[in-house]
């Protein structure tokens, strides 16, 4: 008993301090305010955690500060919105993306060809660059002719805001189908495959000096084959899939939207790591600038495609029930009527925002925790965070694990974005604020500690929400009649203050390890 | 007798520093070969060069008849080289069991080797669930060697196993390495000349990044002048 106490003394002190803090913070409030504030804190904390956990996994193993994590969170939200509100656009985009991926995923085949070609260094380089330009040029030409149903930012009645609003009202607008006019479907499919293959081949030609030899097997052709097949099927059955998705139960559509945005995040992460981050491992400053730059570019692209104004991702039917027994006061009513709100201690609590999001956050926490603690990959990650060279010296391909972790980290951020969108709404700026919160949370919890990311995020969420609440009800100052109302700018400032205090006492963060 | 490892005139770099400037030696199959030399001579860098952890810009490294220079470290290691690094590099966040498990190259490696490993190091069996770094220094060294034995390796690179250990433990270590050398070839970096001379059949002396002498250990033991010149007082 005594030894366990001593061993965990730090954890116990931290818990006691947090509990005392919460107790004091809650004293000035009514029970219903406390409940709502705490739940909102958990909600914001969960979303922050998804971004922070990804950031900390990536930083821990790869030593990369991925400052584009906030932007990727935002992109996750916009991808989710598109699948959910405009499935027609999603289905249209699916085919070209899958075909391009197929062209590129034949890279090992291309590398083999590239090795056979012996032109001498200089002509080979020139040939490669010419082919890259031709390949990407033609690809761009085809893509601009490829029909994709979209929205019109300049026309309010066809803007994302209107589509969202109408879908939220339960009367989704079903836009006209995009049809092949400027290019025939056959030419488009073959063209995309050929041009993306050509580009991949010429990139392989550029790198053929450094590429590693890998033995070929059937799997190398299986993946591109499946991609082509699914891409073509999506094209042939485009109209049917679209109308099926529009007619689908909104809960399932929401699940699909989340899945697609996670998959996009994972894919984007893998792509970023293998193409942009990898060549810069020996130059951390460039890497930092790269992730920062990518983040900014991402924001610009999203602004150009989805527009600057804020809009919402409507909640699925499971969370929108009203009237009758809603707000529910017991679980039976809640489940039967899918109430959007419930009454807890007299306070109205939004089910999606304040119950569902925290539950999902906790589930992700547990799943990633188990992955880290129980799987071989998790073991390699934990070991690699400490000593990459030793892990490699054991015969483990750490590079591949790097890609995986980067993909996973970005996937978590994208998941966070899609999950938060129905509650927070979508703006191109939504990532910036969250990245800042996530960084503060990590500094508080410990940069490379996974439980630290969770604890830090939760604290940041709680502090923010308590400050917001006190901004509404005011804090009576002792010995005077004055009431102090923290103004909105004090909300982020309060988290920074907490960070400073923690770092002064524990420079490694609450759960960080000492270096 | 054939050579399991041939290091041919290598020049190695760590970052931009040119650290090895012509290291050249061979390791006969089944032997224990000691790399000797003063602090900072380049012994550790030589081991890292064999594994591809330091970048070899000139010369070649041939393991089991195969050129490995230029291959990524994980591929070189997977050919059958076990590494026991300086300062042990036990994984802090992994239990003793996991520290062994992570070295598996195919499923079930650890289960196949369990008995063999725990016969050599009965201590480890008692502490399987402890964190790697909760072990004593001697136990950590045992764990580091055990970790290199989990996969089927035909060559062990061991860097200063006696560093910071009590004499009794060093004695145990010597016994273990001697036992191991019956089935595995060993390259041993050792500051403690007594330990090296008890174990090794061959020696290589490295001085300022160059291999300067090599031969039979028993000849070196007889040559007090050479010991004095390269290794200081013996
Ligand atoms: N990361 C590094 N950057 C710069 N120089 C290095 C680095 N690592 C090692 N060196 C230098 O390379 C030389 C050889 O180092 P190495 O570790 O191989 O020596 P060693 O023979 O193993 O010494 P010791 O007996 O002290 O372990 C030393 O002069 C050292 O200062
Ligand atoms: Mg050394």
Tell me the strand percentage band of chain A. under 5%
Category by helix and strand content of chain A: mainly alpha
Number of domains of chain A: 1
What about the largest sheet of chain B?
6 strands, mixed
Pick out the low-confidence regions of chain B. Answer: none
The span between the termini of chain B is: 31 Å
Describe the structure.
The complex is a heterodimer of chains A (515) and B (234). Chain A has one domain (2-117, 147-182, 208-325, 328-505). The mean pLDDT of chain A is 87. Chain A has helices at 2-7, 9-27, 31-62, 69-85, 87-105, 107-116, 121-145, 160-168, 185-207, 219-236, 238-246, 250-277, 284-306, 331-337, 351-374, 376-386, 388-393, 398-424, 430-445, 450-473, 490-505, and strands at 341-344, 347-350, 475-476, 483-484. Chain A is built from 21 helices and 4 strands. The two termini of chain A are 29 Å apart. The radius of gyration of chain A is 25 Å and the shape is globular. In chain A, helix 3 runs parallel beside helix 15, helix 3 packs antiparallel against helix 18 (398-424) and helix 4 packs antiparallel against helix 12. Chain B is α/β, with parallel strands linked by helices and 234 residues long. Chain B has helices at residues 43-51, 73-78, 96-101, 109-120, 122-126, 137-149, 167-180, 193-199, 217-222, 224-231; strands at 3-14, 17-28, 32-36, 55-63, 66-67, 81-84, 155-159, 185-189, 202-207, 210-216. Chain B starts with a strand and ends with a helix. The chains are: A mainly alpha (515), B alpha/beta (234). At the A-B interface, helix 16 and helix 17 of A face helix 2 of B. Bound molecules: adenosine-5'-triphosphate and magnesium ion (MG). Adenosine-5'-triphosphate (ATP) is lined by residues 14-15, 17, 19, 37, 39-45, 86, 191 of chain B.
Descriptive labels:
heterodimer, A: 515 residues, mainly alpha, two-stranded antiparallel sheet, 21 helices, B: 234 residues, alpha/beta, six-stranded mixed sheet, four-stranded antiparallel sheet, binds adenosine-5'-triphosphate, binds magnesium ion
